[in-house]
Each structure stands twice: as C-alpha cells, then as structure tokens.
Amino acid sequence: MNIEDSELPTIPSKRYFTISEASNLCNVEAHVLRYWEQEFSQLSPIKRRGNRRYYQRHDVMLIRHIKELLYDNGYTIKGAKQKLSDEVSDQESKSNSISAIRSELESIIDLLD
Fold first, then answer.
1. What pLDDT score does 89 carry?
2. How far apart are CA 19 and CA 108, in angstroms?
3. Would you call 48 helix, strand, or coil by DSSP?
4. How far apart, in whole angstroms, are the C-alpha atoms of residue 108 and residue 113?
5. Could you report the per-residue pLDDT of 52-80, keeping only the tens digit for each?
6. Cα gap 65→40, rounded to integer Å
7. What is the pLDDT of the chain when averaged over all its residues?
8. Could you give the CA distance from residue 65 to residue 80 in angstroms, rounded to a whole number?
9. Which residues pair with 76 in a beta bridge?
C-alpha cells in the first residue's frame, strides 16, 4: 500500500455505489471511470434504469488497483490490462493447485480409512 492509498476514504459497507460515489472513493473523475470501463473488461458495473451505473465493492477495489497500476506504477493502459490478466491467471493457477492438493489429500484419507 502506498501513501496515496492511505489518503483514500474508507469504502463504506453498502452494496452499491453510484458513479459519483465511486469517483470520490477512488479520487478519479467520473469520465475516467467510464473510459476505464471500455478499456478494462474486468470493470463492468451493473447498469439499471436510464443506463445508470452501480458499482459494487469489488469494482471500487478494482478501480483503485487500476489507478495504482496506471498512476503510481507507470503502466500504460495496455500494460495494466496485461498485468490484470496475469494476476487472474496466477489466481486460477493457485486455485487449480489447491484443488489438486485437496484431491490428493482426500485420496490419502480414503486409503487410511
């Protein structure tokens, strides 16, 4: 966590945030959020009446992560997309490894029983 993150407001415990609330929570302009929605497929707020956007907690966390990659770490949009994609791949790989270990342990338990 960098110094700027500590200056961001705490995310309230509510289910949905409007674009202006998400903008304030992440310290970026609303038009930037709309642009990032086009660029980052992972960022897809719920759209309701009149095409109004509603962000969830995980969306706000993702926005903060994208902001960190772009503004603090100096990634380009393309580089940030790749970094996010790599992170998802790493998480899937870890999840698959855990599943394989769990299956192996269950087999061992069955043998011991």
1. 62
2. 51
3. strand
4. 9
5. 999 999 999 999 999 999 999 999 999 99
6. 12
7. 87
8. 10
9. none
Amino acid found at 99: S
Question: Helix 30-39 vs helix 57-67: angle between axes, to the nearest 10 degrees?
Answer: 90
Closest by Cα among 64, 61, 45 to 53: 45
SS3 53: strand
Q: Alpha-carbon distance 106 to 103, whole Å?
A: 5
**Contact residues for 60 (Cβ-Cβ < 8 A; gap 6+):** 11, 17, 22, 25, 26
Amino acid of residue 84: L
Walk me through the domains of the chain, giving residue ranges and CATH numbers: 3-112 (1.10.1660.10)
* Beta carbons of 37 and 73 less than 8 angstroms apart: no
Helix axes 77-112, 57-67, angle to 10 degrees: 130
